[in-house]
Amino acid sequence: MTAYYAGELVSLMLMAMALGMDAFSVSLGLGMQKLRLKRIALIGIIIGFFHVLMPFIGILLGQAISSQIGDYTVLAGGLLLFGIGAQMVFSAFNHETPQLAQPVGIGLLFFALSVSLDSFSVGLSLGLSNVRTVVTLLAFGTTSMVLTWIGLILGRKVHGLLGVYSEILGGSILCGFGLYILFG
Predict the structure, then answer these.
(1) φ, ψ for residue 99 (rounded to 5)?
(2) C-alpha angle with apex 169: 55 to 47, nearest 5 degrees?
(3) Which residues, 6 or more positions from 122, have their beta carbon under 8 angstroms from its beta carbon?
(4) Against a cut of 0.85, is the pTM above it?
(5) How far is CA 139 from the centre of its chain?
(6) Can you tell me the mean pLDDT for 31-41?
(7) Taking the mean position of all CA atoms in its chain, how far away is CA 137?
(8) Mind spelling out the 3-state secondary structure of the chain?
(9) Which has the closest alpha carbon to 155: 85, 96, 103, 106?
(10) Which of 94, 114, 141, 181 has the fewest CB neighbours in a 10 Å radius?
(11) What is the pLDDT of residues 130-164, one digit of tens each?
(12) Where along the chain do its domains lie?
């Protein structure tokens, strides 16, 4: 029984890392704006909060849908995770660089929302599979917050070298989990 919980925790942490890679890669570019450490701390906390809020809403909706569609929930959850991962991989190859909003005020909220939208969809699929909500949300929020901080600080020095590769890695992990749910 303990091995099962350890495996579930490892899976959740890998999924949290995959979701946080999006925030990490965007934070690398944002970190080139020479932000103060106070601003970096606030950005990480806000993004962490949104990575808790968005999957929580998704999990609630997923659980409501799960009771409605019964046996198809596993199929829907696996397909959704695979689709999100594929979208992350394909968007990494889109070479148009979007104009980043300034990380203050409403711009910070839009920035946090934009990097946490994929966690809403993942939360929706996890809600379909009856995952442990509190552990999942804490893992997602903490991991994305720390990865955002790392990305912002490294962005001052790295200048975007890892951005595309981290999105590809994150998308590949989500695709793998989707396939595992479908066929495992």
Answers:
(1) -75, 120
(2) 35
(3) 15, 19, 55, 58, 80, 81, 84, 174
(4) no
(5) 10
(6) 82
(7) 11
(8) CHHHHHHHHHHHHHHHHHHHHHHHHHHHHHHHHCCCHHHHHHHHHHHHHHHHHHHHHHHHHHHHHHHHHHHHHHHHHHHHHHHHHHHHHHHHCCCCCCCCCCCCHHHHHHHHHHHHHHHHHHHHHHHHCCCCHHHHHHHHHHHHHHHHHHHHHHHHHHCCCCHHHHHHHHHHHHHHHHHHHHHC
(9) 103
(10) 94
(11) 677 888 899 999 999 999 999 888 877 765 455 56
(12) 2-183
Residue entry with tokens 């804490």: 138
Supply 160's token pair.
């975007």
Token representation of residue 171 = 């998308």
52: its two tokens: 């808790």
